Amino acid sequence: xxxxxxxxxxxxxxxxxxxxxxxxxxxxxxxxxxxxxxxxxxxxxxxxxxxxxxxxxxxxxxxxxxxxxxxxxxxxxxxxxxxxxxxxxxxxxxxxxxxxxxxxxxxxxxxxxxxxxxxxxxxxxxxxxxxxxxxxxxxxxxxxxxxxxxxxxxxxxxxxxxxxxxxxxxxxxxxxxxxxxxxxxxxxxxxxxxxxxxxxxxxxxxxxxxxxxxxxxxxxxxxxxxxxxxxxxxxxxxxxxxxxxxxxxxxxxxxxxxxxxxxxxxx
Length: 267
Fold this sequence. Notes:
Blueprint: H1 2-38, H2 40-48, H3 50-72, H4 80-89, H5 96-104, H6 114-119, H7 126-146, H8 148-155, H9 163-171, H10 175-198, H11 227-259
C-alpha cells in the first residue's frame, strides 16, 4: 500500500510541475504582449532590446504548447491519463484508512478530530473515474483537432516551413480556448490532490479566467494564489520596474548632457 502511495504521489507531483510550467509559459507570453499594448513605457523597453524580448516571448510560447502536448498526448510517459489510470488501478490509496494514516502523519495517537473528519471523507467509485475520464476525453478532442499539429509540425518538430502551410494550422487556434485547456489541467491536478490528501470529491471546480472575449488579458493588482494569475502579476511588475529604470537612466543622461559646458572649437 505504501509503495502504491509513493508511486501515485510521484506521478502527481510530476504532473503538477508540467501543469504549472505550461501555465507559467503561456501566461508569461500573454502578459508580455498585453503590457506592450497597454503601456508605452513598456513598449519602448521591449523595442530597445527587441531581439531579447522576441526570443523570450517566443520561447515561452513554444514551451507552453510543447508542455500542453506532453499532458494530452497518450504516447507521453507522464500524461493526464497516466495519473487517472494509477488512481483507478490503485483506488485503495483513497480509502478512509489510508487517508487516516496520511492525516495522522506519523503521530503516535490520531488527532481527536480525525474520526469525525473521516466520516465525511469521499471515497471515489467507478462513477467518479468515469466522469473524470469523460472530461479528459472532451479536452483531448479539442487539443487533437486544433493544437496537436501546431505542436508536432511547428514547435516540437519543424515540418512546416512555408507561411502558406503554417497559416491554416494557426487559423484553428484560439487564445481563450487554449487558456481553458491550461486551466482544465490545473483544475484536474488540484482535484486529484484534494481527493488524495483531504478526501474531497473531485469536482473540477472553476479557476478564474483572465482573458476576455475580446482577447484582453486581466492584469492582477496584487499577488494571487492561482499560478496563472501570479505569473501575470509578476511579469507585469518586472516589465514596469524595468521600464521605469530605463526611463530614469535616459533622463539622467539627458540631464548630464544639458549640464555640460559648451565646447569651444578652434578655427
